[in-house]
Design a protein that fits this description.
The chain contains four helices and 27 strands. A five-stranded antiparallel β-sheet has the order 1-2-27-26-25. The protein has a five-stranded antiparallel β-sheet with strand order 16-17-18-19-20. A four-stranded antiparallel β-sheet has the order 4-5-8-9, with no helix packed on it.
């Protein structure tokens, strides 16, 4: 556990460079005040059963309505088994179910609503879950709709070691633990996988997994990229459904850029693979910049050849089959803004990108382009993370990161986000009142989001 604490802390520092909360972008005001026009942009009328809580004036354009999703917040307020995790991503499945991946997670026990204390837990580095359909055809919002596909250590002896602990779903082939240690619920710390995005091709689920190396002084170094194939035969609970069919651990032997952190399957036959590449523009810069870049697969099948969108020294972009050098990728940003966690989707004739202001900004922005490869400009503030969490005990948090977009959870065309937040001290995740509501997702829905573009 001490290794996990040290690695998580260094990961957040190295990959994001901590700044005070709410760092604003330096190159322009994105919060132009726009009065509400309820004729052109009617006030949303969400069903009461959805338990949405309006966040007044969260966007300076008052035609945009931002809500806390208290129904999904409650769904992920758990006391047994999974009770926290980050890197939360979803993939819509053809049967109407939703596949979920989590990175570092807490599995074990937490107390109920009056205290919300996280107790004995282990810390698997990735895990998966499937959400089944509800009676209305939308993703189900009862606890019974969440099917945790966990390799449990033991669930029969509440007073025994490892009760409702979970083994890491996908181990790295270089993982250092022995079979006996894994059986007892110990977790690899030197080599591990975190989830990228997923897509369905030919009736099977393909998921990219990012290899991470924690050796030496520079922890959380990007390593290989693996491609895992899962069966979609049967139904949740059957031995075939989401069975891991194969893993190509050498899909990319080295992947320092991290293409495929998020995906967009386009109608042009390609799947576009996005990443945010972080580097120093000048050697003496105190902070990195974070530039979204893109590759694409030749067909929607991720096993088809990839090509990379790269600018030459004159700034002219082209698709190339060779993996970019560091110099090439530094000049190949598809937006002029320094942002992280970039998601791309299409609506009408436009491609939109949502992304967090870099670094650790509380603001999520939206940009658009006529092409899935950009350039993504015309940037606007979309929504802003609250300063405090809806929890008992300590409500302030250290960092807001990975605001993931969940298109499969949308009901009426609104944008759905989950957020990750951590506490100032890793041990605050345990034994304190409200500790079980750190390091778990909170959900938000943004209605009338196109209004920021004046449409």
């Amino acid at each position: 556990m001490e290794n996990a604490i040290r690695m998580r802390t260094l990961y957040l520092f190295m990959f994001f460079c901590v700044l005070p909360f709410g760092v604003a972008m330096a190159d322009g005001d994105l919060t132009h005040h726009v009065e509400a026009d309820t004729v052109r942009w009617p006030v949303p009328q969400p069903q009461a059963s959805w338990k949405l809580e309006y966040m007044p004036h969260n966007n300076a354009n008052h035609n945009v309505y931002v809500y806390k999703d208290k129904l999904y917040d409650a769904l992920f307020t758990r006391t047994l088994g999974w009770n926290g995790g980050d890197g939360v991503q979803t993939t819509a499945l053809p049967d109407g179910n939703v596949f979920w991946t989590f990175n570092d997670s807490f599995y074990g026990r937490a107390t109920g609503s009056s205290t919300r204390i996280r107790q004995s837990c282990n810390f698997p580095r990735n895990s998966i879950m499937v959400q089944t359909q509800g009676d209305d055809g939308l993703p189900g919002t009862k606890s019974s709709n969440l099917k945790w596909l966990a390799d449990w250590v033991q669930r029969t002896n509440p007073s025994g070691s490892g009760y409702y602990h979970c083994r890491t779903h996908l181990r790295h082939p270089k993982g250092e633990r022995t079979d006996d240690q894994i059986e007892n619920g110990e977790v690899d710390q030197t080599y591990l996988y975190w989830a990228g995005d997923g897509t369905v091709v030919g009736g099977q689920l393909q998921v990219l997994w990012a290899g991470v190396y924690n050796g030496g002084e520079n922890l959380m170094q990007s390593d290989n990229r693996a491609l895992a194939i899962y069966s979609l035969e049967g139904t949740p609970g059957s031995s075939t459904y989401l069975k891991l069919l194969s893993v190509d651990h050498e899909f990319l032997e080295s992947d320092p850029i991290g293409y495929g952190s998020t995906l967009w399957e386009d109608e042009d036959g390609h799947t576009y693979l996005y990443s945010c590449y972080q580097y120093k523009k000048k050697a003496d810069d105190q902070l990195n910049t974070s530039s979204p870049v893109v590759a694409r697969s030749q067909t929607h099948d991720l096993r088809s050849p990839w090509e990379y969108y790269v600018a030459d020294e004159n700034g002219t972009f082209r698709w190339q089959s060779t993996y970019p050098s560091d110099e090439e990728v530094r000049r190949s940003a598809i937006t002029s803004r320094s942002v992280s966690t970039a998601w791309v989707f299409k609506d009408g004739d436009w491609y939109y990108m949502t992304a967090q202001g870099y670094v650790f900004s509380k603001q999520v922005y939206i940009m658009r382009s006529r092409n899935p490869w950009g350039p993504f400009e015309e940037c606007h503030q979309l929504w802003t993370m609250p300063w405090v969490l809806d929890k008992i005990g300590t409500r302030t948090y250290q960092n807001f990161y990975m605001p993931h977009l969940h298109q499969s959870l949308s009901r009426e065309g609104e944008l759905v986000f989950s957020t990750n937040t951590d506490c100032s001290n890793f041990w605050d995740n345990f034994n304190e009142k409200g500790s079980a509501d750190f390091y778990r997702p909170y959900f938000f829905r943004v209605y009338n989001w196109k209004a920021v573009f004046g449409e």
